[in-house]
Design goal:
alpha+beta
Amino acid sequence: MNYLKLYFMKKMWITVILFVGFGMLCTAQEFKVVTIVESIVPGGIGRSRIIETQTEINADEFTTERTDGKNSRQNEISRSDVKVNLFDETKLLNFYSLGGINFQNIASNDALITSKINKLVKKGWKLTFISSAVESDAGKDDGNGIFITRLFFSRDKTEEEKD
């Protein structure tokens, strides 16, 4: 008799665990991208920013389909319609000053970036992925360059936010 109870108790717990686990897998998520652009233009004349959009946009409105690999209707979409107007822009300092690499500026930028990340984490966002790239000096006549980092955040949607 005890074996039968134990068997059904195990079955019940396994079923509960499976339902809870499945529910966690089916949780709807939303994503956010924050872009960091840091200038590597000598002399400190570049512009560096943290950009966080505050606009929801539907990519389907700006997506066309090519039917034969050549014909595209992208020219029917105005570039001005794609641009968003509502975004947060946090000023950062440039990597270079007149004296060269400015380590104080780099430390200041790290503090600002950390503040932005901590603010989003407090709002329930989780930093899930980071991607970075650099376009640097291409020779003696090219003094331009940027270091770009994209921070990808995710969080579970609340019941009200789910579609």
